[in-house]
Protein backbone atom coordinates (compact mmCIF):
# COMPACT_ATOMS: atom_id res chain seq x y z
CA UNK A 1 0.00 0.00 0.00
CA UNK A 2 1.32 3.40 -0.95
CA UNK A 3 2.46 5.67 1.88
CA UNK A 4 -0.14 8.40 2.45
CA UNK A 5 2.14 10.92 4.16
CA UNK A 6 5.77 11.72 3.51
CA UNK A 7 8.36 10.75 6.14
CA UNK A 8 8.79 14.42 7.02
CA UNK A 9 5.25 14.37 8.48
CA UNK A 10 6.52 12.49 11.55
CA UNK A 11 8.98 15.26 12.21
CA UNK A 12 6.28 17.92 11.89
CA UNK A 13 4.02 16.02 14.29
CA UNK A 14 6.80 15.77 16.87
CA UNK A 15 7.54 19.47 16.50
CA UNK A 16 3.85 20.30 16.86
CA UNK A 17 3.56 18.24 20.04
CA UNK A 18 6.65 19.88 21.54
CA UNK A 19 5.33 23.33 20.61
CA UNK A 20 1.91 22.53 22.13
CA UNK A 21 3.58 21.34 25.35
CA UNK A 22 5.71 24.49 25.55
CA UNK A 23 2.68 26.71 24.93
CA UNK A 24 0.67 24.82 27.56
CA UNK A 25 3.41 25.12 30.17
CA UNK A 26 3.88 28.78 29.27
CA UNK A 27 0.17 29.47 29.61
CA UNK A 28 -0.02 27.81 33.03
CA UNK A 29 3.09 29.70 34.16
CA UNK A 30 1.68 33.06 33.04
CA UNK A 31 -1.64 32.38 34.79
CA UNK A 32 0.16 31.35 37.99
CA UNK A 33 2.36 34.45 37.89
CA UNK A 34 -0.66 36.68 37.33
CA UNK A 35 -2.55 34.99 40.17
CA UNK A 36 0.26 35.87 42.58
CA UNK A 37 0.97 39.32 41.15
CA UNK A 38 -0.30 42.65 42.55
CA UNK A 39 -2.67 42.85 39.58
CA UNK A 40 -4.59 39.99 41.16
CA UNK A 41 -3.84 40.33 44.89
CA UNK A 42 -3.74 44.16 45.07
CA UNK A 43 -0.76 43.87 47.42
CA UNK A 44 1.03 47.23 47.82
CA UNK A 45 -1.47 48.97 45.55
CA UNK A 46 -3.27 51.82 47.31
CA UNK A 47 -6.97 52.30 46.60
CA UNK A 48 -8.07 55.82 45.72
CA UNK A 49 -10.62 57.10 48.23
CA UNK A 50 -12.99 60.08 48.29
CA UNK A 51 -10.88 61.44 51.13
CA UNK A 52 -7.13 60.63 51.14
CA UNK A 53 -7.05 59.50 54.76
CA UNK A 54 -3.49 59.01 56.00
CA UNK A 55 -2.97 56.31 58.60
CA UNK A 56 0.64 57.43 58.88
CA UNK A 57 -0.45 60.90 59.97
CA UNK A 58 -3.20 59.76 62.33
CA UNK A 59 -1.74 56.55 63.79
CA UNK A 60 1.98 57.34 63.73
CA UNK A 61 2.42 61.10 63.88
CA UNK A 62 -0.60 61.80 66.09
CA UNK A 63 -0.49 58.49 67.94
CA UNK A 64 -4.22 57.76 67.64
CA UNK A 65 -5.06 54.23 68.74
CA UNK A 66 -6.61 51.89 66.15
CA UNK A 67 -9.66 51.43 68.38
CA UNK A 68 -10.58 55.10 68.27
CA UNK A 69 -11.83 54.56 64.71
CA UNK A 70 -12.20 50.77 64.52
CA UNK A 71 -14.31 50.55 67.63
CA UNK A 72 -15.64 47.01 67.30
CA UNK A 73 -12.41 45.17 66.46
CA UNK A 74 -12.02 43.62 69.92
CA UNK A 75 -15.63 42.52 70.36
CA UNK A 76 -16.98 41.79 66.90
CA UNK A 77 -16.20 39.87 63.75
CA UNK A 78 -15.90 43.21 61.97
CA UNK A 79 -13.38 45.88 62.91
CA UNK A 80 -15.81 48.55 61.77
CA UNK A 81 -15.34 51.59 59.56
CA UNK A 82 -15.46 54.91 61.44
CA UNK A 83 -18.65 56.88 61.12
CA UNK A 84 -18.71 60.49 59.98
CA UNK A 85 -19.40 61.46 63.58
CA UNK A 86 -16.08 59.92 64.60
CA UNK A 87 -14.25 62.01 62.01
CA UNK A 88 -16.10 65.16 63.04
CA UNK A 89 -15.10 64.77 66.69
CA UNK A 90 -11.80 66.25 65.58
CA UNK A 91 -12.50 67.85 62.23
CA UNK A 92 -15.33 70.06 63.41
CA UNK A 93 -12.46 72.01 64.98
CA UNK A 94 -9.27 70.89 63.22
CA UNK A 95 -8.98 71.62 59.49
CA UNK A 96 -12.67 72.45 59.58
CA UNK A 97 -12.46 74.49 56.36
CA UNK A 98 -10.18 72.17 54.42
CA UNK A 99 -11.32 71.53 50.85
CA UNK A 100 -9.97 68.01 51.09
CA UNK A 101 -12.40 67.24 53.92
CA UNK A 102 -15.50 68.63 52.22
CA UNK A 103 -16.89 65.10 51.58
CA UNK A 104 -16.77 64.50 55.34
CA UNK A 105 -18.57 67.76 56.11
CA UNK A 106 -21.16 67.04 53.42
CA UNK A 107 -21.78 63.63 54.95
CA UNK A 108 -22.24 65.30 58.33
CA UNK A 109 -24.69 67.85 56.91
CA UNK A 110 -26.79 65.40 54.91
CA UNK A 111 -26.57 62.36 57.16
CA UNK A 112 -25.48 60.27 54.18
CA UNK A 113 -22.66 57.89 55.17
CA UNK A 114 -19.24 58.21 53.63
CA UNK A 115 -18.45 55.63 50.97
CA UNK A 116 -15.05 53.98 51.33
CA UNK A 117 -13.45 51.40 49.05
CA UNK A 118 -12.56 48.32 51.04
CA UNK A 119 -8.88 47.46 50.92
CA UNK A 120 -8.91 44.21 52.90
CA UNK A 121 -11.93 42.59 51.32
CA UNK A 122 -12.36 38.84 51.77
CA UNK A 123 -14.63 36.74 49.52
CA UNK A 124 -18.20 36.27 50.70
CA UNK A 125 -17.60 32.57 51.37
CA UNK A 126 -14.86 33.32 53.92
CA UNK A 127 -15.70 33.87 57.58
CA UNK A 128 -13.22 35.96 59.53
CA UNK A 129 -13.61 37.19 63.11
CA UNK A 130 -11.41 40.10 64.17
CA UNK A 131 -12.18 39.70 67.85
CA UNK A 132 -11.05 36.08 68.18
CA UNK A 133 -7.73 36.84 66.51
CA UNK A 134 -7.03 39.93 68.59
CA UNK A 135 -8.03 38.28 71.86
CA UNK A 136 -5.77 35.33 71.08
CA UNK A 137 -2.73 37.57 70.66
CA UNK A 138 -2.62 38.10 66.90
CA UNK A 139 -1.63 41.70 66.19
CA UNK A 140 -3.12 44.03 63.62
CA UNK A 141 0.21 44.19 61.78
CA UNK A 142 0.21 40.41 61.28
CA UNK A 143 -2.49 40.78 58.64
CA UNK A 144 -2.53 44.48 57.80
CA UNK A 145 1.18 45.26 57.91
CA UNK A 146 2.65 48.54 59.17
CA UNK A 147 -0.47 50.58 58.50
CA UNK A 148 0.94 53.34 60.69
CA UNK A 149 3.56 53.92 57.99
CA UNK A 150 1.10 54.08 55.08
CA UNK A 151 0.01 57.51 53.82
CA UNK A 152 -2.61 55.61 51.81
CA UNK A 153 -3.54 52.12 52.93
CA UNK A 154 -2.77 49.14 50.76
CA UNK A 155 -2.72 45.41 51.40
CA UNK A 156 0.61 44.10 52.63
CA UNK A 157 -0.49 40.45 52.54
CA UNK A 158 -2.37 38.55 49.87
CA UNK A 159 -5.01 37.23 52.33
CA UNK A 160 -5.23 34.18 50.11
CA UNK A 161 -6.12 30.80 51.59
CA UNK A 162 -2.55 29.52 51.43
CA UNK A 163 -1.37 32.56 53.39
CA UNK A 164 -4.03 32.08 56.09
CA UNK A 165 -3.20 28.38 56.41
CA UNK A 166 0.47 29.16 56.89
CA UNK A 167 -0.46 30.84 60.17
CA UNK A 168 -3.28 28.48 61.10
CA UNK A 169 -0.92 25.51 60.91
CA UNK A 170 1.55 27.16 63.27
CA UNK A 171 -0.11 30.14 65.00
CA UNK A 172 2.30 30.21 67.92
CA UNK A 173 4.99 32.07 65.96
CA UNK A 174 2.66 35.06 65.46
CA UNK A 175 1.56 35.50 69.07
CA UNK A 176 2.25 38.49 71.27
CA UNK A 177 0.80 39.69 74.60
CA UNK A 178 -2.80 40.82 74.21
CA UNK A 179 -1.94 44.29 75.50
CA UNK A 180 0.47 44.68 72.56
CA UNK A 181 -1.77 43.61 69.67
CA UNK A 182 -2.57 47.22 68.77
CA UNK A 183 1.02 48.36 69.08
CA UNK A 184 2.58 48.47 65.58
CA UNK A 185 6.04 49.10 67.03
CA UNK A 186 6.20 46.36 69.64
CA UNK A 187 9.78 45.46 70.48
CA UNK A 188 10.13 41.69 70.51
CA UNK A 189 11.96 40.33 73.58
CA UNK A 190 15.03 38.13 73.35
CA UNK A 191 13.08 35.16 74.71
CA UNK A 192 10.31 35.55 72.13
CA UNK A 193 9.91 31.85 71.35
CA UNK A 194 9.60 30.95 75.02
CA UNK A 195 7.11 33.77 75.53
CA UNK A 196 5.03 32.59 72.60
CA UNK A 197 4.87 29.08 74.05
CA UNK A 198 3.56 30.54 77.30
CA UNK A 199 1.04 32.70 75.43
CA UNK A 200 -0.19 29.75 73.37
CA UNK A 201 -1.10 27.95 76.60
CA UNK A 202 -2.50 31.07 78.23
CA UNK A 203 -4.76 31.93 75.28
CA UNK A 204 -5.55 28.28 74.45
CA UNK A 205 -4.21 28.68 70.92
CA UNK A 206 -4.19 25.58 68.74
CA UNK A 207 -3.63 24.77 65.11
CA UNK A 208 -6.96 25.09 63.31
CA UNK A 209 -7.14 23.89 59.71
CA UNK A 210 -10.55 22.25 59.38
CA UNK A 211 -12.68 23.71 56.59
CA UNK A 212 -15.61 25.01 58.63
CA UNK A 213 -13.33 27.25 60.68
CA UNK A 214 -13.39 29.74 57.81
CA UNK A 215 -16.09 28.40 55.47
CA UNK A 216 -19.47 28.35 57.19
Description:
- This protein has 216 residues and is mainly alpha-helical.
- Among the domains are: 28 residues; 98 residues, no CATH class.
- Helix content is 43%, strand content 0%.
- Helix 5 crosses helix 6.
- The longest helix has 29 residues.
- The N and C termini lie far apart (67 Å).
- The mean pLDDT is 92.
Short key terms for the protein model shown above:
216 residues; mainly alpha; 10 helices; 0% strand; extended
Give a quick summary of the entry.
The protein is an all-alpha fold and 216 residues long.
Inertia-based shape = extended
DSSP strand tally:
0
User: What is the H-and-E element order?
Assistant: HHHHHHHHHH
Strand content: under 5%
CA-CA gap between termini: 67 Å
Query: Structural class, please?
Result: mainly alpha
The poorly predicted ranges are none
Q: Please state the average pLDDT score.
A: 92
Number of helices: 10
Q: Report the major sheet.
A: none
Radius of gyration: 25 Å
| Range of helix content | 40-55%
Amino acid sequence: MAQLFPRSSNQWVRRSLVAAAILGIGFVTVVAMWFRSPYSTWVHIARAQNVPFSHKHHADELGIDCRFCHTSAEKSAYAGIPSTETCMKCHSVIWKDSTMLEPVRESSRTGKPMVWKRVHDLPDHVYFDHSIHLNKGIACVSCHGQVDQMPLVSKSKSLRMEWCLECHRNPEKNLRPSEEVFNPNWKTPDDLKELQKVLAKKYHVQSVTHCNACHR
